[in-house]
Design goal:
It is globular, with a radius of gyration of 15 Å. 51% of the residues lie in helices and 14% in strands. The chain has a domain of 102 residues: Rossmann fold. By secondary structure, the chain is of the alpha/beta class. Helix 2 crosses helix 4.
Length: 148
C-alpha cells in the first residue's frame, strides 16, 4: 500500500514499539518510511501516542549495553517530542487489554498497546507485527506493507 494512501484520514496514530526502534536506530529497511511518518507528526498532521510500556521495551537493550546516548535519544523522542504522547496504563486500559488478550490470545504488551490505541481513540495502530492484523477493533497498519 502506498504510504500516502495509508495515512489519509489518520489524525491520531498509536505506535507499537518496533517502528520507534526502527526510527531511532536508523534501520535501513524502514528508516525512510519512519521519517515520512515522523515528519507528519512533527508538522502536527498526525498526533501520535504509545503506551508507557514502550519505554520499557525500547530501553532494555541500551541499558544492557550502557548506551547512554541511545537511552537519551529514546527518552527524548518518547517524552519530549511535539505531538507525541506516552500514555500511562491505567485501569481502563488494563481492562480493555485483558479483553483483547482473551479475545485474540495476544501477549500482554501487545494487548496493552492496542488497548491504549483504542482508549485514546486513535484512528489506527502502526506496527510491524503481522499477527496483530487479526485485531478488528481498529485499522492495523503494517510498516513493511507500506511503499513510498
Amino acid at each position: 500500500m502506498n504510504i500516502k494512501d495509508a495515512f489519509k484520514g489518520i489524525s491520531k496514530l498509536a505506535f507499537d514499539t518496533a517502528p520507534i526502534i526502527y526510527f531511532v536506530e536508523k534501520h535501513p529497511d524502514y528508516l525512510h518510511k519512519m521519517r515520512y511518518i515522523f515528519q507528519r507528526v512533527d508538522m502536527g498532521q498526525i498526533m501520535a501516542c504509545s503506551a508507557t510500556i514502550t519505554l520499557t521495551e525500547v530501553l532494555n537493550f541500551p541499558i544492557q549495553q550502557n548506551a547512554v546516548q541511545l537511552i537519551k535519544e529514546y527518552e527524548d523522542i518518547l517524552q519530549n517530542s511535539k505531538n507525541f504522547q506516552l500514555i500511562p496504563i491505567d485501569s481502563a486500559i488494563a481492562r480493555v487489554g485483558a479483553h483483547l488478550r482473551a479475545k485474540y490470545r495476544l501477549k500482554t504488551p501487545d494487548a496493552l498497546q492496542i488497548a491504549t490505541a483504542l482508549e485514546t481513540k486513535s484512528d489506527a495502530f502502526l506496527t510491524n507485527d503481522f499477527q496483530l492484523k487479526r485485531v478488528q477493533e481498529l485499522p492495523i497498519i503494517i510498516l513493511s506493507d507500506l511503499v513510498i
